[in-house]
Amino acid sequence: MIDTDIRPGEIAVTLPGEFDAGVYFIGRIRTPWTNRVECPKNARGSDAICTIELDPRYATGLAGVSACTHLIVLYFMDRARRDLMMQAPRHHSDLRGTFSVRSPVRPCPSPANSEAPSRPSAAGFGRSGLKFE
Amino acid sequence: MIDTDIRPGEIAVTLPGEFDAGVYFIGRIRTPWTNRVECPKNARGSDAICTIELDPRYATGLAGVSACTHLIVLYFMDRARRDLMMQAPRHHSDLRGTFSVRSPVRPCPSPANSEAPSRPSAAGFGRSGLKFE
Fold first, then answer.
1. For chain B, how are helix, strand and coil distributed in percent, rounded to 5?
2. Domain-located, residue A1
3. CB–CB of B111/B97 below 8 Å?
4. A83-129 pLDDT, tens per residue?
5. Is residue A4 part of a domain?
6. First CA to last CA across chain A, in angstroms?
7. Partner of B116 for a Cys bridge, out of A90, A108, B25, B127, CB 3.0 to 4.6 A?
8. Chain A / chain B CB contacts < 8 angstroms
């Protein structure tokens, strides 16, 4: 099964013909996982070392993050399909509405993770288990 | 002062010439506030009745949200400027890095609010103090 397959019972809708707004990728998250199926269900599911590489253009914006208890990291999974409204998550036996699960498969694919920063640098930040570059 | 003015000490960067990805507006949030300056600092700052209107196209995706303890609502402030990396928040006397504050002024303007759903319907959801349509 590849990332874009639809599972039995899942419901897709027709998306609008054009986008309403654009986003800039302010950086890249490097992880050991190369496809969605391999990703842990949540951050507690792995001790892997991951890296957030922030575009140096935005480095000034990191000022003061070391004083934050948590950072909310929104990431865009650019290959996740965006049209499913009912989904069959791997960890559930039943179908779930897209807005009741944290799946990256949604109209605007922005899963959120809350990270406690520990070592902010000029170009990155993270929590225990994250490496900074 | 209008929303797009720059305050003393704030630092802007040159944004990329094009977007990396697009988003769909899946609905609209209706509030009593018509400009950013009037908005409360956070949800505890007001008891105003607000409404989330979900595009009926996506209504199926609400299945099961009543079982969620919280919903994370990401909203796109389309008129917020996106180029400031150091900001002078109204509630602080010093300058702050963009990634250390929750300001909607950021490269991808997606503030997040966590809402406890109480009355999901076919076309909306929310918490105490939010009205559903």
1. 15, 25, 65
2. no
3. no
4. 999 999 877 789 999 999 888 899 998 776 666 655 444 444 444 34
5. no
6. 34
7. B127
8. 143
pLDDT digits (tens, 9 = 90+) for A30-61: 989 888 778 887 777 788 888 889 999 999 99
The token duo for B75 is 């909203």
Say if pTM beats, i.e. exceeds, 0.95.
Answer: no
Are B132 and B124 within 8 A, CB to CB?
Answer: yes
Evaluate whether residue B68 is within a structural domain.
yes
The two tokens of residue A23 are 């986003």
- B55 burial level (CB within 10 Å; 0-12, 13-18, 19+): middle
Residues of A in contact with B59 (CB under 8 A): 85
Window A:5-44, CB contacts with B under 8 Å? 11, 13-16, 18-26
Give the pairing type, strands B96-97 and B112-115: unpaired
> CA-to-CA distance for B29 and B21, rounded, in angstroms?
22
Q: Do A64 and B100 touch (CB under 8 A)?
A: yes
Query: Domain total for chain B?
Result: 1
What residues make up the domain containing A71? 11-16+23-131
**Residue B18 corresponds to which tokens in the numbers above?**
């094009």
Instruction: Tell me whether 0.85 is exceeded by the ipTM.
Output: no
Query: How far apart (Å, rounded) are the C-alpha atoms in residues A65 and B26?
Result: 31
Cα–Cα distance for residue pair B81/B3, rounded to 1 Å: 8
Tokens found for residue B112:
């997040």
Question: For residues B20 and B94, is the Cβ–Cβ distance under 8 A?
Answer: no
CATH of residue A66: 2.40.30.70
Provide the edge-to-edge strand list for the sheet that holds A27-30. A27-30, A50-54, A130-131
